[in-house]
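#struct-pred

JT: dropping the chains for the assembly here, can someone run the whole complex?
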Amino acid sequence: MKLLEDRIIKDGRVLSGDILKVDSFVNHMIDVELMANLAKEFYRLFENEGITKVLTIEASGIGIACLTALNFGVPVLFAKKSKSSNVSSDSYTVDIASYTHGNVNNVSVTKDYLTENDTVLIIDDFLATGNALLGLIDICTQAGAKVAGCGVVIEKAYQAGGELVRKRCRVEALARVASMGVDGSIHFAQ
Amino acid sequence: MKLLEDRIIKDGRVLSGDILKVDSFVNHMIDVELMANLAKEFYRLFENEGITKVLTIEASGIGIACLTALNFGVPVLFAKKSKSSNVSSDSYTVDIASYTHGNVNNVSVTKDYLTENDTVLIIDDFLATGNALLGLIDICTQAGAKVAGCGVVIEKAYQAGGELVRKRCRVEALARVASMGVDGSIHFAQ
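RK: done, full complex below.
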């Protein structure tokens, strides 16, 4: 999606450790008008799939998930990374390793909110290792829910995650980064 | 706001430990159409304040903050609860104790994204002890940013937070819970 690629070129920054920093418009400060445009594109891509719920994981997927769900007229469900005292123990859970944070989170969704009657669109900001999306697909499998596909804002197409997740379901990435140069350049896959 | 109070009566649940569980429509599953209506109300209340940024804290404030910011045509900035490897060390930080989770989080906002030129609307899902809002106000003070006020979805009006935060800035709560009965009843302040 050219609008997003142009913005990544303009405001994204390549840091050491293979980090694409987009926290000025995606995952710390959020350009909600840009996200609303991306959300419309997710709607266009999945509008005929009978989506009943948009599933994401806290925290940085929540904004784009809410704007996407508004187009579909369905609720957002966000998987929680830590057990709080007001989440039921009656949950679907999975362990997800985070590349960015270098830790493993136990991620959970309350069973009441995801069932075999659901057709789910999974939304997240990044696809790199695929761990987060695979974990969310696993939660849907536990619930017997159908996964219509995954919509991600940015895919690091040179990492293994995209191939792993595409073995499980349809994946639509609005920008696919093919490589990042040590000079800070960013190149997109066709 | 009657729409919200009616929904809290219908779907909210009172649990032991003074917990009002609204995770079927506010902070685990999110009814985005309801939130879009609440966001419009926040816009009506603060539209003449020259808001330049909506500030919230991860994770459950992000959805309502994004929908609110869309009305204002300004970005969302969400304070992060844990230091990740792609957040600059050049941040405003504050420690915030969480009643729900029983822990203390170091919360941070990157300095580049909040300045003395900003007029901030702080948005969160709950106001109880006031710790989260007071922490976000502190971050704005560190940045020299003006706080136009706080908009919260649900205030537990019988806890001390509302009074503490109102000493610092304007607070608008869309539902103010006056008391919760052991029988599960929920009563609202006038």
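JT: nice. The CA atoms of residues 25 and 35 of chain B lie 9 Å apart. The radius of gyration of chain B is 16 Å.
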